[in-house]
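Continuing the series of single-chain predictions for the mutant panel. This is the parent chain; the variants come on the following pages.
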Amino acid sequence: MKKEENIKLGISIGDLNGIGAEVVLKIFEDKRMLDFCTPIIFASIKTMSFVKNHFKLDINLNGIHNVNQALVGRVNILNCWKENVNINFGQEDIKIGEYAIKSLEQATKALKDEAIDVLVTAPINKHNIQSETFKFPGHTDYLNQELEGNSLMFMVTEGLRVGLFTDHVPVKDIASHITPELIEEKINTVYTSLKQDFKINKPKIAVLGINPHTGDNGVIGNEDDDILRPTLQKIKTSGMLVFGPYAADSFFGSNNYKNFDAIIASYHDQGLIPFKTLSFGQGVNYTAGLNRVRTSPDHGTAYEIAGKGTADMSSFKEAIFTGIQIFKNRNEYKIISQNPLGFSKRKI
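Parent structure:
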């Protein structure tokens, strides 16, 4: 790829007391990464210089005040604040949460305005970001409000993609959230994403049951029989290759997941525990269903190792490459959809 064709990659810096800033700068210490994208980190040059010096990294940072000043082949830091930030690695701090939100809000605005092509979000602390003006349980809910479409948490890695009917919902409320309308919406989102974002022409989707053993004919709950099965049957009549519901306890251990392009779990832990067990730190959290591309690593702030220089870059690097590839796939899908015969008609 020529450098002038590089994708503008925005990065929100997340919780500065966690491992996010360390991982980001370590990734771009490898100058080969600049052949794939032009990074724009939403933070401040003072803050990122502190992180650079703390970890003794060999990296040149280019401070800018708007996205248009970003230079190809450089690690650009967009100044979201001027003051010094008091960083204490491994500590939960409300003030640090405020900087995480400043970064996220400015990065999201750039994404909405198409000033950046892809957004990768570093981990936040869901507790210290809460305020009178920001009352979201995480990135996904905020981006769902700010961008067009209906968001879906889609965990992806090589050979495995897991979506969710419900994400950050208390266990006691899960069944009441899973309605026929929600099931149809989420399955349509996964189906569309598999086609336009992952270039799969005829996706096969598996759905996991709500109750243990999918309810055992009503012995362990009626939701699978009364809500999930009839809705899946209705969806099948449209021609979608949707299968289930499957009992979640044996689905992954039996390797049945390998027969499908995506799996939709009924709730957070039902899908994320097997995903994170199988992905070994290579997983990516992709927000499907929106009109812009956002990814993140599959780990959190990791306060316990923050500041020690031992954080693993693998998942964040995968989030970058996945975001870039999805952006390219989407553009190609748009072109092909407009002209089913190809990109252009050649003169013979």
